[in-house]
Amino acid sequence: MTTVLILLGLLGLLLVGVPVAFALGGLALVLMWAADLSPVLVPQALYSSVDNFVLLSVPLFLLMSNVLLKGGVGRDLFNAVQSWVGHWPGGLAVATVISCALFSAIAGSSVATAATIGTVAIPEMIGRGYNRPFVLGLLAAGGTLGILIPPSIPMIVYGVITEQSIVDLFLAGIGPGLMLSAMFILFSMAYARFGRGFAPVAKAGWDERVRTTLRALPTALLAFVVIGGIYAGVFTPTESAAVGFAVSLVIVYALRTMTWAKLKLAAVESMRTTVTIFLIVGGAKLFGKVITLYRIPQDISMAINANIGEVGLFILVVCAVLLVMGFFLESMSMLLIMVPVLYPSLMALGIDPIWFGILFVVMIECALITPPVGLNLFVIQAVADVPIAEVLRGVWPFILMMFAAVVAIYFVPDIALYIPFKL
User: Cβ contacts of residue 178 below 8 Å, gap of 6+?
Assistant: First the structure.
């Protein structure tokens, strides 16, 4: 009964609009008072929530992605990819997905990916006659690759919570990320072939291909440095974020696309996002410690073990809960609320935590493009200056593809596990 009341209390606070960090922290304080727990728990929980070297990579990756966003490297990346595949059926859509995937390999942020590529691709595609809802849906969904293709900020946080190898999580995200990108590309080509009309793009000449590729080459090399350095063991994820930020500054100033005002704006926006994330992390840490003292995770784990004996049923229930939570919670909040509660059950059911982490990330990708709080929906709406309903009309096929990806990862675990453990 206590567990139900606590969950209903948390749900009620979220539904009335209390910010997630304060809902978690405030409810934790009430529970501490009710149980006469020592207030010393509060500073201890807040300190331990940020006293982690790995979490330092979060603001650094945010800084890197915002510097690249303000430096306009998305246009260079899109132009280079478009020069190679733009003449294909649905070529601009294909170029958009590939550009999102490449930028995701640098940024680690879905919002930055959607905003960076969307700023360039939306006017270009609409100008070529692509159906506008399709374009908006493609960009909103393509941006979600930013939290699946490494480096990924949610994967870093998941690794910290579960004490799993972040390098293994990054490696496990490559296969599903490429699979989802391929699904988006095939759908885009089929849509262009059998759907509404679009104006084909002339095949680019070799001079244009060489010119655009050379201009985008530093950005591609940045992805190689950030990801390759981690996998080669040259530096840790945190060190790679610092190196990536430094190299991104060199790139944007060498291309003469960065000013002091833009750099200041990138720093301020990164600071705001970092503070938001860390406040949620702190509130979730305090809430997690308190509910552990109340034995709620243990009770939930015991209830799952008593009533759900099959992995498939457990995953189905988790996906259903995440789908509902995605209607009113953003991805990081879902991660920080659900993972500490579910993790004990993973061990009891023999579920690989790396595999589950990838499945979890794909599901919270859906939260980024489901109303009413899907962040990518609002990013694309702001970039395109269109009603939110128009974005929603174009995004639903991509949500279905994400569900199909979840099913594929469930039945073929090697999609996620082959690269980190068998390659």
Answer: 101, 149
CB 376 within 8 A of CB 136: no
Give CA–CA dist 18/147, Å, rounded. 25
Instruction: Tell me what pLDDT residue 230 has.
Output: 84
Q: Which amino acid is at 168?
A: D
How many CB atoms are located within 10 Å of the residue 12 CB? 12
Which residues make Cβ contacts (< 8 Å) with residue 182, sequence separation at least 6?
Answer: none
Contact 211, 217 (CB under 8 A): no
- C-alpha 66/C-alpha 109 separation (Å) is 10
State how far the Cα of 301 lies from the Cα of 305, in Å rounded to an integer: 6
CB 290 within 8 A of CB 37: yes
CB atoms within 10 A of CB 73: 25
Please tell me the pTM assigned to this model: 0.88
- Core vs surface per residue 256-286: b (16+ CB within 10 A) or e: ebbeeebbeebbebbeebbeebbbbbbbbbb
Enter the DSSP assignment of 133: H
DSSP conformation letters of 221-257 = HHHHHHHHHHHTTSS-HHHHHHHHHHHHHHHHHHTT-
Provide the terminal-to-terminal Cα distance of the chain, rounded to the nearest Å. 47
Half-sphere exposure of 201 (CA within 13 A, CB side): 27
Cα separation of 243 and 355, whole Å?
A: 28
pLDDT at 277: 87
Low-confidence ranges of the chain (pLDDT < 50): none
Identify the DSSP state of 368.
T
The reported pLDDT for the residue numbered 162 is 92
Helix axes 375-384, 388-411, angle to 10 degrees: 140
The pair of structure tokens assigned to 208 is 């244009």
Residues near 412 by beta carbon (within 8 Å), at least 6 away in sequence: none
What pLDDT is recorded for position 1?
A: 65
Give me the DSSP letters along 45-92. Answer: HHHHHH--GGGGHHHHHHHHHHHHHHTTHHHHHHHHHHHHHTTSTTHH
On whether the CB atoms of residues 238 and 56 are closer than 8 A, the answer is yes
Sequence-distant (6+) residues with CB within 8 A of 274 are 58, 59, 62
In terms of Cβ atoms closer than 10 Å to its own Cβ (0-12, 13-18, 19+), residue 333 is buried
- Tell me if 182 sits within 8 A of 149, measured CB to CB: no
